[in-house]
Design goal:
alpha+beta; 3 helices; single chain; two-stranded antiparallel ribbon
């Protein structure tokens, strides 16, 4: 990109390669109500996410980001097992494929190039709970709170939120 700008009153010219287009950061106060809405739900025992800067990203720039929210409800309390007898882990509790939050069903109609994605609707026990969890997930992954999350929880972190407090563990993501 060629520019003719100035920096601190000094002219800048030449080809300038733009860096990362980071999302505009929002104050933590905008995340607070979404966070509290999930925390206040009596059926949610704990929730969390991972946040890290990848070590290698196929040649792309490695940038810090926050990853999917997971939620443990009373239906998946510690030691609970799935239909195969395997203990349910936080990997099984991603809000997009959660065993007890429900889900929004959808399908594709038509042929390319006029194919359309059609939302069929929510199926599950509590649509408001599902929507609160999805709203928090979207906010965390939006990039708009990355500076605050990095400052408070660090890089390479597994963050677990319970009513009693927040626990941060080192997260190995190789």
């Amino acid at each position: 990109m060629t520019t003719d700008t100035n920096f601190l009153g000094m002219p800048v010219s030449g080809d300038i390669t733009q860096g990362s287009t980071r999302v505009e950061q929002k104050p933590l106060e905008e995340l607070a109500p979404l966070f509290q809405a999930v925390l206040d739900d009596p059926t949610i025992l704990e929730f969390g996410w991972t946040q890290y800067t990848p070590y290698f990203n196929d040649g792309d720039t490695c940038e810090f980001s926050v990853h999917s929210l997971w939620v443990r409800t009373t239906a998946e309390k510690e030691g609970a097992v799935d239909e195969y007898g395997d203990e349910i882990s936080r990997y099984d509790l991603d809000v997009d494929y959660h065993p007890s939050l429900g889900e929004v069903k959808s399908h594709w109609e038509g042929e390319w190039p006029n194919r359309k994605h059609v939302i069929d609707g929510y199926e599950g026990p509590d649509e408001d709970r599902y929507n609160r969890c999805q709203a928090l997930d979207r906010a965390l992954q939006s990039g708009a709170f990355e500076n605050e999350l990095l400052k408070h929880f660090g890089d390479h972190a597994l963050v677990t939120v319970r009513r009693s407090g927040i626990e941060v563990e080192y997260y190995s993501h190789d």
